[in-house]
Amino acid sequence: MDSALIPKGVKRCPFPQFILFIAIVGAVLLWGVYAMLLCWFKGLNQTNMNDFYGFALWIWADLAVIAVGGGAFFTGLLRYIFGKDELKNIINYAVLIGFICYSSALLILAIDIGQPLRGWFIFWHANVHSMLTEVAFCLSCYFGVLTIEYIPLILENRQINKVPFFHHLGHNMHEIMAVFAATGAFLSFFHQGSLGGVAGVLYGRPFAYREGLFIWPWTFFLFTWSAAACGPCFTILITKITETVTRKKLVKDNAIELLAKISGWMILTYSIAKTADTWHWATVTVPSLGQTLMDFYSNNPFYGIWILILEIAICGFIPAFILITQKGRKNSAALWIAVFLAVTGVCINRWVMVLQIMAIPVLTFENWVMYLPSWQEVATTILPVAYGVILVAFSYRYLPVFPNEPELNPIETLPPEKEKAVEPSVELEKELKPAEA
Amino acid sequence: MKQKKAKKYGMVIDLDKCTGCGSCMVACMAENNVPFRKDESNKVLSITWMRVYKLTNGKPFPNTDICYLPRPCMHCEGQHEGHSPCVSVCPAIATDYSSETGVVSQIYTRCFGCRYCMASCPYHARYFNWWDPVWPDGMEKYLSPNVSPRMRGVVEKCSFCFHRYQLAKEKAFMEGRRELKEDEYQTACTQACPAGAITFGDLNNPNHAVHRMVKPDPKHHGRPTHPNAFRLLERLGTNPKVYYISSRDWVRRAGDNYLEHEAELKQTVHHG
Amino acid sequence: MKIGRRSFLSFLMGGAAGTALSPLPWKLMDDSAIWTQMWPWTPVPEDGEASYVNSSCTLCPGGCGITVRKINDRAVKIEGMKGHPVNNGGLCILGLSGLQLLYGPTRVKTPLKRVGKRGQGRWEKISWKDAVSEIAETLGDLREKGQSHTVGLISGSDRGTVPRLFERFLTVYGSPNFIRTPSIIDSYELTLHLMQGVQALPGFDFENANFILSFGSGILDGWGSPVRMFKANSVWRDTGAKVIQIEPRLSNTAAKSDKWIPINPGTEAALALGIAHVIISESLYDYNFINNYSSGFDDWKRFVLDNYGPDSVATITGIDDRTIIVLARSFARASKPLAICGRGQGITPGSLDECAAVHALNALVGNVNKHGGICAVTEPDYINWPEAEMDAKASAGMQKDRLDDAGSKKFPFSRYLLNRIPEAINSEKKYPLNTLFVAGDNPLYTMSDSKAVKKAFDKIPFVISFSSYMDETAQNADLILPNHVYLERYEDIPTPAGMPRPVIGLSRPVVKPQYNTQHTGDVIIRLAKALGETLSDAFAWDSYDACLKETLGYKWRVMVEKGFWSYPGFVAQPREESFDTVSGKFEFVRKGTGSLKPFKPVKIEGDKTNYPLILMPYDSLRLANGVIGDPPFVMKSVDDTVLKGTDVFIEINPKTAGEQGLREGQLAMLSTPVGKAKVKVHLFDGIMPGIVALPRGLGHTAYDEYLAGKGINFNELIGPVDDPVSGLDAAWGIRVKLAKA
């Protein structure tokens, strides 16, 4: 039915099956959209946020998707600036995942603010001293960059590419992609950092507050670092999941392994930095404010010291050690575990830096306040996941996301109804070329 | 013309006199058109610009003691003027620090409800309008035109009754005066407190009662030098303009976090 | 023309680019910002000319002066009146919320007549004319049948023109059943009557006292005139006066006092006598007063010395004898000591023995009718109406015994005994009540043993409420004749509770009546005129306002201007003239009351085996518990350890809770011999083990959604216990059982 749209040389599931899949995920999406509309029309009373939890699940989701979406900028940086050529086979997917993450982040922000129609005040009445202003500007700009990076991939759709204008547009955009990759990396450095700064500058909250360099608290650098370290792991994780779901090998091992290796070293150095930061904070900053480390991890039903151990040791050092060793990288199960832990680690870090801050009392006569999200919050947080799955499904089905796919999965027997659509393999290679350029 | 010295309006609350009667809370609500809902027992959703906390010393019967502590917005000055925890983080300049009066304002029509300021405030002095404000039929008649009711989705907080300052300034101007007298600008809570526990005035003016009561130390960001006076979370360096007085040691100690071995009111200099 | 794909795409892109470059998006953005600032459902208060009106608050007997800020014809804020002798600028939480009552949803907007069953809430509007003639008809019939004495009236006060008009009405109509809402004032009046021979109110010169010995009085919890008490407390903080608070629970008063002494509840009288024992045995008393101005001291001295040694008092009260001795010495040695009683806000009159024992302490240290002491304040007699003429029917009715036995052989000294009314009606021993007027009280909420009260009300065929608000009593009435709210009417406010000098406040209209209401004073006058005969002669005034103006005479103009009339030249009577007893002196031994019988604590209901704990109420300014319920603002101020959702918390010592297996926040079932209620547990170290405390003021079934259905009305769990001498309600608590729910 839609075979004319499917890239040449690859096999896709039957259209009805695809539609069924989209329908199921679409239902989840609609549930999220319903919750979103509730929040917009009825207000944020639909959430379980409160005056102690001004930031909650959504801000965590925002920080988390941006952190894991960091794979796009870092892979781009490695591919285009540091010239790691092996990564060309995964860069498309990294960009797509980044695009999904960033568009999701913007959507969540649009739901999260109390006056969505005034959201543009952040640009119009910008306070340059606010970390959130920096976040908003860099995030929007980088989303623009990601869109520009994603467009050429769309233009490679078989039918769109037939239009000479789009063909040439796509080609020319590829040519200048290095400029955008550099811009993206620069912007990402700042907005990832400013997201860290969001928490780090809160000098009224000893749990969040960090000293730093000039105007930037240490969390600024730690956030950028952790996003660069764990973002690629998320790219690998999603690639692995996609491979599992499609039951195909889509990316060559060398690309994955290179990314994993770089990621491993990044995670290791990040974990060391994070440990040093935590140590300094716990032994110098916190006591100077009259508190001890354990004040932040006791007298409450949930947040124990386990969360710190889980974040740094189990989800930091362990994946780092797996990924920096060749044996670990090459072992599929170990790789799975490592990327999963790394992604979990960065998500826990973002959770702690948003929700635990809110939970901890600063006034001596206040108590810990716990929070459970409402279904509307959960639904609107799942909404971008469903949206991401759908976008991945469409992109995978209709766009040449994985340049290695035809090579890794040669089509042996063609289904009779598709026979006509098959073109000579020489042409097929030509078709795929722009993506490799 | 020589610039007149800026004002630094502040408040001193005598906890020995405060009886926890709640008049300040309601005077504030009535003055500032604060909305209310059917159930206000969930205090993390209840807008109370002025909130009276009940502190206990944690000792068993019969050595138990309680103390009430009214908490308005602290109108923090921060380590340098205007670097309040909340003002510095607002992305849209919807909350601002007045260098003329030291009052931290909130511009409701500018605020788009990101709630970053709430996250930054260790005093929980900021409140979000989770709901549309609704007054039962007819009750909107008592709303004051001097304070605009807030729409859903924005943050609000104590303004030190800034509209009263504006009205007083206007009046003074009409009478050809440039300076306000001490009693011309008083907050609604100060005025209503039946115990006279709240004093309000210019901390920079040595003739004002607030200055005489706590003797702020200009070398240490206005830290009180009176032995019974303290500020909430002094060590964070928020530099609040609300001072408390208590003759009870445990109450003063409850004003900040201390390590076990530390004596209270230690002369620590903020890390920043 | 065929639109190709390319031209279509070009059109789309061109259109998009064109729109983006046009002013349209910018205009829309700007509009969106403006629109969100002016949502039509967010009210914009109308601006206008600001003005201020001085008046008086009537929401409690405190009598504070208020200044109401107005914008055009709207009242926008109530503030305390500067320079007022009672509150001088400050105001309590309830007074500050007054506008929520004025403009609130609980107002009764027009006279209503019941159409459904009682309490069903089905009403029909009725004109004032019809309402008055309906009552006149019923009252006329009863009077014709010689049943005039079966008409009763419950009034919040017996002072001031409106209660006096009611009293006058009942007198010329022919009913002795004018009943005042009880309070500690009843016990004090009785004590002053028996010990000093006067009919007067107690006045306390708190501001000038320097050692306050409070037997559980909630000085900072709404006792007396609340704002005045707060101010006095601040004076004490400044002057270094000492406050000793004696009660089993760490109330706000106890927390602010210089020393809190927990006591076994109900044994306060024994402690007072124990203190007297120390003062007498150590000869610390005021010789001048005892020798020259008192009578019966020797008998009383023997009685005290024989029975109340510190060690035996220690056993009774649970306070160690050393503390008692120290306390007695510091009290007696203070230059201006003052002992007071009345638990909490003084809502229940309490035991007469106790009040007398505490008052005797004041006499011992000679601070009666003295600077910084207690004095008997006679109400200035500004209401001088011509004697009303009673016809034969009226005289016959007035000669009937009161339904509550006040003034009878059994309780010869008491004036009103509202607590005995439900039993009198329910037992059907005397005579029925055929018509009941309720003004300034909400007995279906405020009287203890709610079930019995409801049962009694059900037996009264005709109940008329004058309430401005749809309260519990109005809800169960047959006819509601809504009074103007205090901000819409003129009325005199007699001397506030506990003031040592008389002050008359004036409540005056701040805004014009918002609804079809009428001044209760006018309704009485109209009713009297409708009944004709001697009644219309006794109520010759054209209107209530005319009556008030005439009554106040020359004071009127000053009061309208200032808002009050004070008696700056007032001095308490010199001691030589202040005792109107047989001896002409202060009587330590109260004649005819068996006051030298050894102390027996008031026995509260319930046995120890079935009800191992003791339930006591506590009062808070943030929970109005009288005729007025909490307005929304005040409800908002209630702590979440008092009320959460619709659940009220009991306070209980962690030790006792542990014994009962109860944890913080847990649901529990509270059962007393009178009633049951589901409550939540709040552990509080500041309460004596074995005691459970529940706040008064919750559990309303009437009023609005902001108040109704939240918590438990304490009165559902307790019944009255008659004091053997006065007949007043002496119950200070009730035994209770607490179990996991």
Structure description:
The complex is a heterotrimer of chains A (437), B (272) and C (741). Chain A has helices at 15-42, 57-68, 70-81, 88-112, 121-124, 131-155, 164-175, 177-200, 218-246, 253-288, 306-324, 326-330, 332-359, 375-398, 405-408, 425-436; strands at residues 212-213, 216-217. Chain A is mainly α. Chain A has one domain: Formate dehydrogenase/DMSO reductase fold. In chain A, strands 1-2 form a two-stranded antiparallel sheet. In chain A, helix 3 packs across helix 8 (177-200). The longest helix of chain A is centred in the middle third of the chain and has 36 residues, at 253-288. Chain A is globular. Chain B has one domain (9-253): Alpha-Beta Plaits (2-Layer Sandwich). Chain B has 6 helices and 12 strands. Chain B has helices spanning 23-31, 116-120, 162-174, 188-192, 209-214, 249-253; strands at residues 9-14, 51-56, 66-71, 95-97, 104-106, 127-128, 155-156, 198-202, 216-217, 223-224, 229-230, 242-245. In chain B, the strands form 5 sheets. Chain B has a 4-stranded mixed sheet. Chain B has a two-stranded antiparallel ribbon with strand order 2-3. In chain B, strands 4-5 form a two-stranded antiparallel ribbon. In chain B, a hairpin with a 5-residue loop joins strand 9 (216-217) and strand 10. The radius of gyration of chain B is 19 Å and the shape is globular. The two termini of chain B are 35 Å apart. Chain C is an alpha/beta fold. Chain C is built from 27 helices and 28 strands. In chain C, strands 5-4-17-16-15-6-7 form a 7-stranded mixed sheet, covered by helices on one side. A 6-stranded mixed beta barrel of chain C has the order 22-27-24-26-25-28. In chain C, helix 5 crosses helix 21. Chain C is globular. Chains B and C meet through helix 1, strand 2, strand 3 and helix 4 of B and helix 2, strand 3, helix 4, helix 8 and helix 9 of C.
Structural descriptors:
heterotrimer, A: 437 residues, Formate dehydrogenase/DMSO reductase fold, two-stranded antiparallel ribbon, B: 272 residues, alpha+beta, Alpha-Beta Plaits, 6 helices, 12 strands, 16% helix, disordered C terminus
